[in-house]
Design brief:
This protein is of the alpha+beta class. The protein is 56% helix and 18% strand. It has one domain. The chain is extended.
Length: 77
């Protein structure tokens, strides 16, 4: 079961997407799709990143041009 805060966030985004879908999409991206700052990782997050380093090194990397810059894509086989 989702927490109360998550239910509120879902409700706000569900209502807002009908009024201003583009603005709501940008707001959601800013909130949920940003890479966390590697300098402020918790101990558990740091261990997870260290464990994944070998796996990530095996991926093929692609840079895709986007309207506002570029996006890094990792392709795993």
């Amino acid at each position: 079961m989702a927490s109360f805060g998550l239910k509120v966030i879902r409700s706000v985004f569900a209502a807002a997407e009908h009024v201003a879908p583009r603005l709501t999409g940008r707001a959601a991206f800013e909130l949920f799709c940003r890479t966390p700052n590697a300098k402020v990782l918790s101990d558990g997050e740091r261990r997870a990143v260290d464990r994944a380093a070998g796996f990530m090194a095996e991926a093929r990397h692609h840079r895709l041009k986007a309207k506002n810059g570029c996006v890094m894509v990792h392709e795993f086989r």
